[in-house]
Amino acid sequence: MADNHLSTAEMQALDAAHHLHPFTDSAALNKKGARIITRAEGVYLTDSEGQTLLDGMSGLWCVNIGYGRAELAEAAKRQMLQLPYYNTFFQTSHPPVLELAARIAELTPGDLDHVFFAGSGSEANDTNLRMVRHYWASMGKPEKTYVIARKNAYHGSTMGGGSLGGMAGIHAQGGLPIPGIVHINQPHWYAEVDDLTPEEFGLQRARELEAEIDRLGEHRVAAFIAEPIQGAGGVIIPPTTYWPEIQRICDEREILLIVDEVITGFGRTGKWFGSEYYGLRPDILTIAKGLSSGYLPIGGSVVNNKVAEGLAAGGEFAHGYTFSGHPVAAAVALENLRILDEEGIVPKVEAETAPYLAKRWAELGDHPLVGEARSLGMLGALELSPDKANRFKFAADEGTVGYLGRENAFANGLVMRHVGDKMIIAPPLVITPSEIDELVEKAALVLDLTLAQAKDQGLMVAA
Ligand code: PXG
């Protein structure tokens, strides 16, 4: 037992009795007992049994500066003592929120200069949905209400976020998607095509946006929303032709472009924002996660001058959250941005650690269980396949082999998530080359163990 007055078994029993976990089959978890994480430092977690794990997922894609930065704790303490809470609703403001808004305006590309704060990425995307409709209504075009999104996208799990997202499992529960949201296909070359080059496929998938605008009628379309790189969908890196074509279509058509940078923001691609990486000019950019490196919950919608002016023309936007621009979360986010900037963490990812990760991660592509190893910035995925030459899927239920991989990773000191039969990583941006070596060596061991089990269990059969 480390740090706690309760034993692991006692904590697991309390957890099973009273705690409902997100995206979790409770019955299955409670039988097994949750792994209880008690501390963390740098890129390492420690559990209640004192075992360490290299956190290949930055928590949940968010701890960009790594764990254990006392400066953020001190910023929170200072702000709590000075002004722990005040709202920003009724013509009031406070120093941390206005300073953070100004800093975000500086860091984000183009004239994305205005921030509407939320407590999370889901809330920010819910804001976006109401905001784009209200924007068009304010511009005298109330019929522009449709939002085009993509299958297998993730934009959160609230009614709006879950509807904008294109995950079948989420849509199957609770009456989603809500009306007025349509989904086009994702640019997932590895899994969805065998007769086009990635470049041809990227153009084809981007042009589905144009076709969908025409089908609905441009006069009825408010916006298109997408992640620069799909994260929860399985680190899907679009072909190089995809985003320039999407930008062309958005430029030619009267629709807003919402770029959801909840994962790709704050350095994950080696640029401050994925929009810079891909040369995008969003009208609205969604932020959360890495904004505070996950130390406190905060998110937001960063909007350009055009959208801000349009909203202003519409009078009051009847929308907001008690914790929009929470002073303590804002103070912590500011400190996080200071550290990211002053320690040169983002350019270091671009020049040093991302190229090193790319080189080492690509080596895993030679493993017999791996159909493709891809990475970009501090994001990586391995497509597991029973027949790598043909990129075939497994005959077993999707995720059976991936889950074995996840279990092997956890058992061997590495947090690596599985999305179906993909293994994915998104390590803290501060991971060092020697920690990358450790991550890749552990991942290689996980692949060996998983391959052996898959063979034993007769799972190496193509669909
Ligand atoms: N947009 C994107 C692109 C995200 O990745 C959200 C919005 C929602 O943010 P909040 O803060 O409401 O969770 C996300 C969140 C996973 C996983 O399993 C990914 C996310 C959240 C939870 C789990 O990969 N991404």
- Based on the coordinates given, report the CATH architecture of the largest domain: 3-Layer(aba) Sandwich
What is the molecular shape?
A: globular
Q: What is the helix content?
A: 40-55%
Rg, please?
Answer: 22 Å
What structural category do the secondary elements indicate? alpha/beta
CATH topology (fold) name of the largest domain = Aspartate Aminotransferase, domain 2
- How confident overall, as mean pLDDT? 97
How many H/I helices?
17
Distance between the terminal alpha carbons, to the nearest Å? 45 Å
Low-pLDDT segments: none
Strand content: 15-25%
Main β-sheet description: 7 strands, mixed
Integer count of domains: 2
Strand order of the largest sheet: 4-10-9-8-7-5-6
Tell me how many strands there are.
15
Looking at this structure, what is the CATH superfamily of the largest domain? Type I PLP-dependent aspartate aminotransferase-like (Major domain)
Small-molecule binders: 3-[O-phosphonopyridoxyl]--amino-benzoic acid
Name of the level-1 CATH class of the largest domain: Alpha Beta
